[in-house]
Amino acid sequence: MKILYINSLYPPLVKGGAELSLQLIVEGMQSLGHEVVVASLHPEQTLITDRVNRVRVIRVPLKNAYWPYRDVKTSALSRLSWHIRDRRNAAMGKVLGQIIKKERPDLVSCHNLAGWSVAAWDEAEAAGIPIVQVLHDFYLLCPNSNMNRGGTPCEKQCLSCQVLRSGHAHASAKLSAVVGISQSILSRFGSYGYFPKAKKQVIYNIRSVSAAQAPKLREPGQKLTVGYLGTISRVKGVEWLIRQFQELEIPASLKIAGKGHEHTVSTLRGLAKKGDVEFVGYVQPQQFLSQLDVLVVPSLWEEPLGMVAIEALAGAVPVVTSGKGGLSESVQHELNGLICPPEQPESLGQSLRRLYEDTELYNRLSAAAPASVAHFLDKNRLISEYDQIYRSVSLSTSPTV
Known about the structure:
- This protein is of the alpha/beta class.
- The protein is about 35% helix and about 20% strand.
- The longest helix is centred in the C-terminal third of the chain and has 19 residues, at about 380-395.
- The protein starts with a strand and ends with a helix.
């Protein structure tokens, strides 16, 4: 089977975990004998083809007002203009149509479509090729891909999202199958009427991590090292974490790793005046996690999956989390971590205090953590599940004789 993968970026151009997960999928399918090719975007002005680990990658110039993956602030008017064109970018569709005509794939696997837009669906359907859409984020519901506005999570689509995504749910009827990286994200799209005719399946992303670590053992009265790893922003719950941490009256330190908007980081630094709080900037994830007793993932928005929690648990580090979105599918309350609802703000501090005081509970959570996420880290499982859904779509759409 020949599979054409479509994504905004492809390594070495990486914006987030979606690109890393896609690379594992693509190379895995190639290892099974499928012919694979990737169509992605790049900031240059000419189309180029290169190879990454023997995978052929077609890198296409973006036909829109600007390249959105630079750390350059643009005006609200420019962003609106970009998103209006990205609602259904006919120019990008035309380029993709030419690629499809030349490559003649048996199946198109769409991932993050920012820049390409749902014009990708139009072109694949016009060529009579089945489409599998993989949901890594909320792009198809929200132009910003994250369903939050000004740092506040959106419970439903705002008016601008409704306008800029009008017709998308109807267009999604063209798809043969849809894969969610969690049940949470798949269900959320379903609640908006997306993918009415598609086969639906959850396939969890994976991360490459070191071998399972030995359980961490705490002694009574031992200082608790608490950590946060990720984007430093309000919607990620970092402010909530800092405020709760500073109310603790136990021997503890808080290490905050990651980057964020300069103003946001400055504001949070100013808030963290009490207690042992350190902003450590960029870190190597596994090295950082190995220094912690507890990882806190206090997201206020619906995380599509929350891979950082899985990485921590794989390293025998219990996780305290809000449980929003896909986080509740990896962190299990009182099995490998604790869930504290944002609607009960004091629950976060109470959870940290509980792990400090109850060493028996802590040691049990740490011991159970690696095995509890083993299936998330199984590369063979990921490749097999994608192979199965691709084959099922191909068989169901093959012409009968």
